[in-house]
Amino acid sequence: xxSVALLAALHAGLSAALPAPASFFPELMVREVQQxxxxxxxxxxxxxxxxxxxxxASSDQTTGYQAGALGVDILLQAVPQLYNVSNPRGVxxxxxxxxxxxPAILVNLTQHIQKELDSPYCQGVVVTHGTDTLEETxxxxxxxxxxxxxxxxxxxxxxxxxxxxxxxxxLLEAVTLAADPAAxxxxxxxxxxxxxxxxxxxxxxxxxxxxxxxxxxxxxxGFFYNIKPRFFFQPTLPLGRPYFDVSATPIDGLPQxxxxxxxxxxxxxxxKGAVDAGAKGLVVAGPGAGSWxxxxxxxxxxxxxxxxxxxxxxxxxNGFVGDRANNTFGAxxxxxxxxxIMLQLALNxxxxxxxxxxxxxx
Length: 362
Prior knowledge:
28% of the residues lie in helices and 19% in strands. The protein is α/β, with parallel strands linked by helices. The protein folds into two domains: 228 residues, 3-Layer(aba) Sandwich (Rossmann fold); 103 residues, Rossmann fold. Helix 5 packs parallel to helix 10 and helix 7 packs parallel to helix 9. Its EC number is 3.5.1.1.
């Protein structure tokens, strides 16, 4: 929990000293380890902003706050217990609300994390992130960083200045998990509210609740007891999870992929409109198991026949969307936002129809 002095400092306007989002200029802000303990693992914390770094005008305000207002140095100062479980090194990578995270930021972040984890110095990585798009960043990292070392993405549902802020304990649990040898070989993970989830399957299920990140069908990987991780299973990875190497991808080099939302009387012209606006692939969030209207289906078939791959997903929270044909594909268990990332990375890797048909529908 924040001390009274630290809360006073937050309200005094420390955030005003922060520069523009670090991912857009060449030198990142780095807080090096202040007290090194050779018996503890080295954990690098990449801060990107979000509610966990949010600041409000009063301690009872949990909406309408400024996301990404506080720097990684403040987050580390607020949780001195981090130094009991690790040698934490903070990197201010960005400081924005998670809706401002772009494909360019994700490619840049992946490239930095891969280099960090390739070093024998670093035993694990934590990424602090806003919750609105946290699952997308976590999924992206799960598919693009090749490592056995833990990658943990963490956020908060209440700003740092709230009277019962969840950020400090979430951050401590995330770093504790990243420092635990039992966390190796599990892919990227998401930590909030004492839960450990697979980045591949987890999604945000409630706009306001602390207990929002869930994989309803697949379940959690584990939980925390007295801030110690407890796993349900031996290390394993999701069936069919691919890997995409973006180490040589230009930061702004990912192709545009757009999502179309399904509803009664949907506008079929939106499919062609998205392609005309630059989309190299489409994902449809269909009612039921990826269904679509007849006029809409005709429009989808037209753009697919002209070379634009289309993935059918579902707008409902859970479910499986099966096989399609003729340059269209079922998303399997992936929701629309994760299907978009999968298709974007596959197109960047040069996948064509035959390869895409093996990639989806798991």
